[in-house]
Amino acid sequence: SANLKGKDLLTLKDLTPEDIMFLLESAITLKEKHENGEIVKTLEGKTLGMIFEKSSTRTRVSFEAGMLQLGGNALFLSSQDLQIGRGETIGDTAQVLSQFIDAIMIRTFEHSKIEELAEYASIPVINGLTDDYHPCQALADLLTIYEHKQTFSGLKVAYVGDGNNVAHSLMIACAKMGVDCSIGCPSGYEPKEFVTEYAKKVASETGATITITENPVKAVQNADAIYADVWTSMGQEEEAKKRLEVFASYQVNDELVQHAKSDYLFLHCLPAHREEEVTASIIDGPNSVVFQQAGNRMHVQKALLQAILA
Ligand code: CP
Ligand code: NVA
């Protein structure tokens, strides 16, 4: 079993391929038990604090429900209500929360903020999305792909759109598991250079390829999975109008998916904007697995919480 006890999950760089495989297998077991109504109380008496500086549906509810199912507690801590919103430092907040609870999940803006929190906290810190990464999402993405394909070997995942936090974590997840990953994005909206470099380095060790291209058709060519995310992420709202134009030719629609394998999976982290990054025909169509993917957030996070805290 992987030794993740007491560890942080700030990015997937923190996990080895073996750790990831362990979490996926553990998630599959927990999911089966949940579906059979079996109760697993491995986190009795444990409390997770969840700090949100941005909106959330899936992350909040999946972490909270997951903790409760494992016999623990979860506290929703809006940054507007915390003293953080009135200027208390991240370092002081981290040290104070460490007196009361067993782990912190945080959704915030700059990735440096979660690094600072982790530095001052004496308890594990889990990334629930930063401007640069969304590692719990990528674990759920891997689980969903694995459930359908039963393997990672020989697969190609294509991400079409903005080279954002979700793209970054997906790229690292694929690299770690030896999955070819192709990002189709407009010039100027590529994944950050240091993330691509890291993913390429890992991929060279696992036998995968990481490709960045401006051509969405080339990105999805022969893909086993096509992934879309919003064109305007949280915090970029004032760029929304411009982004609609920049990304117009990167919509996942009936024409684009013709270039993928016929049994391609459609993935989206959600929330989605129908007729922007993806047409309703695709996200509500037969190849879409987006709700299974959303559900898998909870199962994989339960596996993670158990590995870190039990
Ligand atoms: N995919 C995801 O993280 O969704 P929320 O923003 O609703 O948490
Ligand atoms: N890229 C999106 C993901 C939302 C789950 C954002 O950061 O807003």
Descriptive overview:
With 310 residues, the protein is of the alpha/beta class. The protein has 2 domains: 12-133 and 297-309, Aspartate/ornithine carbamoyltransferase (Rossmann fold), CATH 3.40.50; 137-293, Rossmann fold (3-Layer(aba) Sandwich). Helices cover 43% and strands 14% of the residues. The protein is built from 12 helices and 9 strands. It has helices at 17-35, 58-69, 90-100, 111-120, 135-149, 165-177, 193-206, 216-220, 240-246, 254-257, 280-283, 290-309, and strands at residues 47-52, 73-78, 103-107, 125-127, 156-160, 180-184, 210-213, 225-228, 265-268. The longest helix has 20 residues, at 290-309. It starts with 16 loop residues before the first helix and ends with a helix. The model has no long low-confidence stretch (mean pLDDT 98). Phosphoric acid mono(formamide)ester binds next to helix 2.
Draw up the topology in text.
Elements: H1 17-35, E1 47-52, H2 58-69, E2 73-78, H3 90-100, E3 103-107, H4 111-120, E4 125-127, H5 135-149, E5 156-160, H6 165-177, E6 180-184, H7 193-206, E7 210-213, H8 216-220, E8 225-228, H9 240-246, H10 254-257, E9 265-268, H11 280-283, H12 290-309
Parallel strand pairs: 1-2, 1-3, 3-4, 5-6, 5-8, 6-7, 8-9
Helix pairs in contact: 1-5, 1-12, 2-12, 3-4, 5-6, 5-12, 6-7
The structure holds phosphoric acid mono(formamide)ester (CP) and norvaline.
Residues 56-59, 129, 137, 269-270 line the site of phosphoric acid mono(formamide)ester (CP).
